[in-house]
Design a protein that fits this description.
The complex is a heterodimer of chains A (about 230) and B (about 800).
Chain A: E1 2-13, E2 16-28, E3 33-37, H1 44-51, E4 59-64, E5 67-68, H2 74-83, E6 85-88, H3 100-111, H4 115-128, H5 144-157, E7 162-166, H6 174-190, E8 194-198, H7 202-205, E9 210-215, E10 218-224
Parallel strand pairs in A: 3-8, 3-9, 6-7, 7-8
Antiparallel strand pairs in A: 1-2, 1-4, 4-5, 9-10
Chain B: H1 2-15, H2 17-45, E1 57-66, E2 69-73, H3 80-87, E3 92-108, E4 114-125, H4 127-132, E5 137-139, H5 142-145, E6 151-155, H6 156-163, E7 173-176, E8 180-188, E9 201-204, H7 205-210, E10 226-232, H8 238-243, H9 245-252, E11 260-267, H10 287-328, H11 333-370, H12 382-408, H13 412-416, H14 427-460, E12 470-474, H15 479-482, H16 485-493, E13 498-504, E14 514-516, E15 518-520, E16 530-534, H17 539-543, E17 547-550, E18 561-565, H18 566-571, H19 577-580, E19 584-587, E20 590-598, E21 613-616, E22 624-629, H20 634-648, E23 656-658, H21 659-666, H22 668-702, H23 704-712, H24 717-751, H25 763-789, H26 793-797
Parallel strand pairs in B: 4-9, 6-8, 16-21, 18-20
Antiparallel strand pairs in B: 1-2, 1-10, 1-11, 3-4, 3-7, 3-10, 5-8, 6-9, 7-8, 12-22, 12-23, 13-22, 14-16, 15-19, 17-20, 18-21, 19-20
Helix pairs in contact in B: 1-11, 2-10, 2-11, 2-12, 2-22, 10-12, 10-14, 10-22, 11-12, 14-22, 14-24, 14-25, 16-20, 22-25, 24-25
Classes of the chains: A alpha/beta (about 230), B alpha+beta (about 800).
The structure holds adenosine-5'-triphosphate (ATP) and magnesium ion.
Adenosine-5'-triphosphate binds near residues 20, 41, 42, 43 and 46 of chain A.
Chain lengths: ~230, ~800
């Protein structure tokens, strides 16, 4: 599904190149649950952003679903966002002015899903995540864990084939974190959704089936987890 | 403390350079417009000031009530001043007549050779006139200088012109109208530009009476050139004096069943502002127009202040944390308000300085528009400085107070936790202000469109005659000149490029009009008056007038043949115009017969309806020779006409105008209005839209994170631009709805002052809406497009 070849990323500062990623080459297949780990500043978020097409690599090639996306045009990228990729953020990034229900609805509106279809999908998600009672509340009326649930529900609404999550539990307590991780595992195993997450916690990484260890922009280790 | 505030203010302004720039730009343009309007209004209000006893000085006004009309004139019957002096001894200290006129003044040198020949306006005045109005005398005094016949007083400027140096003028003599020699007996200081009394040559009133004019004793004729001024006794009231007027009128006027005479007293300080009555200087500025300008100025300032408030409250959120920290440190709310007001004051003062520069730049344009010398000198007029100080304080307060209240009111806890959102900072107030601002803008756009359309309508409306390429050349009307009329016309006709010529009393459309009572077909006196014009047999051809029944005037010097216009017959209820041919008209004590009917033409400005008109020939009454020219050879033909004129009439002074110039003079006020509307509408549009740009910039920055989130959810650029634009377009749309009825009231009222006017339809309104919406769309789209396409990852990356 994802094919990275010799991805490099650096920031030039006063003529000196500061490498964030060096010659990253890896393949991620459909249905995998990958955790990216490594010390702070190693380049994990950068890598995930490149996979999510939020950033462009300075060098290297990147194929998504067999298509070269290193220099994708705007329309194509929006197309991918609408149909294939869901994001989950550490800071949730819900829209403050919209209710839970409206937040989940937003990607469906962009995808131009019909209203009855929309209603049934949202009802389904609210039900599944046990947040039906909260649907008319605003983000600032929810706890962090609840907000992250909404964030995941929103990412799932458009029925993506892959979810990219940057430290989804970074702001949560361990009990809530566990809940989210179980959810991810379930999504991966039951719905076959590919998941790539960045995490600092060895425990969280165990929910997945593969770990990429990064340090100083280089992939040091690529281990599979046998469950 | 103040110094520290100023330093912080400076840093903050510098930090938000973009918004500061927008604020200063808007405010300085708004303030410059206000200053321009203020110095103009100040100049206009300074007319006829500084006369001693100005509150006791009045001009006598005459009025007539006819069955279907009432009109007034600033003139009085010639015998009135003397009668009033006699009958109002108790109420008035002084009563004086002044008569405006004009003529040729010649000065000879020692050897008796003619040195200067010039045509000047002159005034005959009684000595008392100068005791009522305190002009400055440089030499002589009114009592001695003007009490004898054949004496003249000159302004220093005129004396310099005639004799080289006014000090040498007294005792010398000038020749007037080739008839009398006048001895110079006094010099007055030149009257300033802002005076309704442009006195240059003042001849003693006894000289006027000496000319044995029949009208000097006639109570029945009034010319607007003979005015009468009175000085009320100290302690007396003008209302009491007015009570004696009915008695005065019955004593002197003969009863007449057509019109009823009346008089009233007009205050000196009203003379400059009353457009219906006019004055010697021909400079009037109705107070209504000054108010209109003041309102536009206020609107401009308001628009600029709204920009300021909007940007300041929008920025307030980002200042929230500072407020919280300061409050925790123990700052009082009052101190915070002072600090924020200091920032506003800093911006306002900078704007004023920039505004002064803009004023200086715009001043020449304004002076040429009003054809007046208007001064922007703080030393000459300290009041301008006072105005600017008030302006700065007012703007600082208006623009700064509300944002200061909002910002200083944040609770420290919320502020520090950064929980203040844009909503908290008066989003709805901002919306209302934007609507107000755009409503003002749209009213001005509509106003401008209507004014411009009415102006072009007036330019293009067929007047019923052809005013292009017609020169109006003055001719003297004394008996000596009349004997040379034939020669003059003959020679002018021979000039190549001259198509036809006609002697006449006035062009078809003219601001000098004579109205007379008449009898039609031997019946009783008519209930309305006819406008009389005289012209020779070529009058109709020269002006392109169309005869629609009977025939035009033929070559004759009598008044036997008469041509009337359609309105005349309509008012007399004559349906078939041919029925009128051959009927008699008795007018000005002479009887004539109708030989033709001329198609209606506009005989005054388009403010006025067409008058009933009587045209006949009368050699004695001609003042003008109208010359229709081939438009290709106007310049050489005019030079040739002047040359011939000067050889045929060497004793007189040549003067000429063009018919179209005369007509465009009627609309001087409208032209100025149009120009002002265009300029100020442009300025307001500019101010409003830079304000809008500032606001959308702010909103775009504020919503960066939201834009980023929506982008990863799959929103396209177009969808994002639409989202950011939406509320702005809605606000401008609402502003249109607010503006329409108000604008309708204004323009309908303005148009009502024209008898001939465009039909007010929906187009100016629709057009204003389209303009405002399109400009809004462009303004906000530029900014929101930029917001939608910038790489938004940073907004999501760290938090
Ligand atoms: N815009 C930028 N300009 C310069 N350097 C940058 C920029 N963005 C990121 N970096 C650098 O790139 C490196 C990798 O950043 P990245 O966010 O990928 O780290 P990370 O592994 O996600 O760290 P953490 O675990 O703290 O989230 C860091 O050293 C960071 O300083
Ligand atoms: Mg990171």
């Amino acid at each position: 599904m994802i094919q990275l070849n010799n991805i490099e990323k650096y920031y030039a500062n006063k003529g000196i190149k500061n490498y964030v990623l060096r010659l990253v080459t890896t393949t991620i297949k459909q249905g995998e649950f990958v955790s990216i780990m490594g010390p702070s500043g190693a380049g994990k978020s950068t890598l995930l952003n490149i996979i999510g097409m939020l950033e462009e690599p300075t060098y290297g090639s990147y194929e998504f679903l067999g298509e070269d996306v290193t220099s994708l045009n705007e329309r194509k990228r929006i197309e991918l966002y609408r149909n294939h990729i869901g994001f989950v953020f550490q800071a949730y990034h819900l829209i403050d002015e919209m209710t839970v229900y409206e937040n989940i609805e937003a990607p469906l509106l962009y995808k131009k899903v019909g209203s009855s279809e929309r209603a049934s999908r949202i009802a389904d998600l609210l039900d599944r995540f046990n947040i039906v009672a909260k649907k008319d509340l605003f983000p600032n009326q929810l706890s962090g864990g609840q907000q992250q649930l909404v964030g995941i529900a929103r990412a799932l609404a458009a029925q993506p084939s892959i979810i990219l999550a940057d430290e989804p539990t970074g702001n949560l307590q361990s009990a809530q974190a566990e809940e989210i991780m179980t959810l991810f595992k379930k999504l991966n195993q039951e719905d076959g959704i590919t998941i790539i997450q960045v995490t600092h916690s060895e425990k969280n990484a165990q929910y997945g089936n593969r770990i990429l260890h990064i340090a100083d922009g280089v992939v040091k280790e690529d281990v599979a987890i046998l469950s | 403390m103040f110094k520290l505030n100023l330093k912080i203010a400076w840093r903050n302004l510098w930090k938000n350079k973009g918004y500061t720039f927008i604020n200063i730009l808007g405010l300085s343009i708004g303030m410059a417009s206000c200053i321009l309007i203020f110095i103009f209004i100040r100049y206009q209000l300074s007319f006829d000031e500084n006369f001693k006893n100005e509150n006791r000085i009045y001009r006598v006004i005459s009025g007539w009530t006819t069955p279907d009309n009432f009109f007034e004139s600033a003139g009085t019957p010639r015998p009135l001043p003397a009668a009033m002096r006699n009958d109002f001894k108790q109420q008035f200290d002084k009563v004086a007549a002044i008569q405006a006129s004009g003529g040729i003044i010649k000065v000879k040198d020692e050897s008796g050779k003619e040195r200067i020949k010039t045509s000047e306006s002159v005034h005959y005045a009684e000595p008392d006139f100068f005791e009522i109005l305190s002009f400055k005398w440089l030499d002589g005094n009114p009592r001695q200088s003007l009490s004898q016949p054949n004496t003249v007083v000159l302004s220093d400027e005129m004396a310099d012109k005639l004799f080289g140096d006014w000090h040498k003028a007294v005792g010398k003599s000038v020749n007037f109208q080739n008839k009398v020699d006048l001895k110079v007996t006094g010099i007055i200081e030149k009257t300033p530009d802002n005076s309704s009394f442009p006195l240059k040559v003042i001849i003693s009133y006894k000289t006027y009476l000496n000319q044995a004019r029949p009208e000097s004793t006639n109570w029945g004729t009034v010319s607007s050139t003979s005015e009468c001024y009175v000085l009320l006794k100290e302690g007396a009231s003008i209302e009491d004096a007015s009570k004696s007027l009915p008695q005065f009128i019955t004593k002197y006027y003969k009863r007449d069943n057509v019109s009823k005479e009346s008089h009233r007293f007009q205050q000196l300080r009203d003379i400059h502002y009353n457009a219906d009555l006019g004055n010697f200087a021909n400079k009037v500025m109705p107070k209504k127009e000054l108010y209109g300008l003041a309102i536009i100025g206020a609107f401009l300032l308001l628009t600029a202040c709204i920009n300021f408030i909007n940007l300041a409250t929008a920025q307030a959120v980002s200042r929230g944390k500072e407020v919280g920290v300061r409050k925790v440190m123990g700052s009082l709310r009052r101190q915070l308000i002072v600090q924020f007001l200091t920032e506003t004051l800093t911006i306002t003062v900078i704007s004023l300085l920039v505004g002064c520069v803009l004023t200086e730049v715009a001043l020449p344009g304004m002076q040429s528009l009003f054809k007046d010398h208007i001064s922007f000198s703080i030393i000459e007029h300290p009041i301008i400085f006072v105005f600017m100080v008030i302006l700065v304080l007012l703007v600082s307060f208006l623009a700064g107070f509300y944002p200061a209240m909002v910002m200083s009111g944040y609770s420290p806890a919320l502020a520090i936790k950064n929980k203040i959102t844009a909503n908290a900072a008066g989003l709805s107030l901002r919306k209302i202000l934007v609507v107000v601002q755009f409503a003002i803008t749209i009213i001005l756009i509509i106003g401008t469109l209507v004014v411009l359309r009415q102006m072009s309508y007036m330019r293009e409306k067929p007047l019923g005659f052809i005013p292009t390429a017609v020169a109006l050349v003055d001719v003297p009307s004394d008996s000596m000149a009349i004997t040379r009329y034939h020669t003059l016309q003959d020679q002018i006709n021979k000039i190549p490029g001259v198509l036809s010529t006609s002697y006449c009393s006035a062009a078809p459309s003219s601001d000098s009009n004579n109205e007379s009572n008449f009898r039609y077909n031997g019946t009783v006196k008519s209930t309305f008056q006819a406008n009389t014009k005289t012209g020779d047999e070529n009058y109709f051809k020269t002006f392109g007038l169309e005869i629609i029944a009977g025939k035009g005037l033929s070559k004759s010097d009598t008044i036997k043949d008469i041509v009337v216009n359609e309105t005349m017959l309509k008012k007399l209820n004559v349906v078939n115009y041919n029925d009128a041919i051959g009927k008699s008209i008795r007018i000005n004590d002479k009887t004539g017969y109708i030989i033709g009917v001329v198609k209606d033409f506009n005989n005054m400005s388009l403010h006025e309806p067409i008058s009933p008109i009587v045209i006949n020939s009368d050699k004695e009454s001609y003042t003008t020779i109208a010359v229709k020219l081939d438009s290709k050879s106007i310049l050489p033909a005019m030079q040739a006409i002047e040359k011939i004129w000067n050889t045929v009439l060497p004793e007189y002074v040549y003067g000429s105008t063009f018919m179209d110039d005369k007509i465009s003079e009627y609309y001087q006020t409208e032209k100025i209005m149009g120009a002002l509307f265009k300029v100020f509408a442009g300025v307001i549009i500019f101010i409003s839209f830079i304000g809008l740009f500032g606001l959308i910039s702010f909103v775009a920055t504020q919503r960066t994170r939201e834009v980023a989130i929506r982008k990863v959810l799959g929103a396209s650029t177009l969808e994002l631009v639409k989202m950011l634009n939406g509320s702005f377009l809605l606000m401008v749309f609402v502003a249109n709805l607010v503006a329409w009825p108000l604008a309708y009231l204004f323009v309908a009222k303005w148009l009502a002052t024209f008898t001939y006017r465009i039909d007010l339809n929906i187009w100016p309104f629709v057009f204003a809406m389209i303009i405002s919406m399109v400009i809004t769309l462009i303004t906000v789209s530029i900014r929101s497009y930029k917001a939608a396409v910038t790489n938004t990852i940073d907004a999501l990356k760290y938090e």
